[in-house]
Predict the 3D structure of the following.
Amino acid sequence: MTRKTKLSKWAETAFQFDTELWRSKTTEGMVVLGKLPDGIFTLLRFNDEGGQLTHISESEALWLTLELAPEKMNCI
C-alpha cells in the first residue's frame, strides 16, 4: 500500500523552469518533466523534504507522459 503524502503549496509550485513541459502531483510528491535546449529530457521528483533531478531518455519521457500526463503527449 502506498503512503499518501500531502504537498504544501510551496512544494506544488516549487522549482519552476522555463524548460518545463508538464508537472503532475503523485502520491509520492510532484513530478516535473523538462527538455533542455540540447534535447535532453530531465525529470525532477520532489516533495516537502527535497528532490532529485535526473536525465531520462525520450522513450522514458514518453512513457511517463502517457502514464502521468496523457493530455500533454503533444509536448514530447
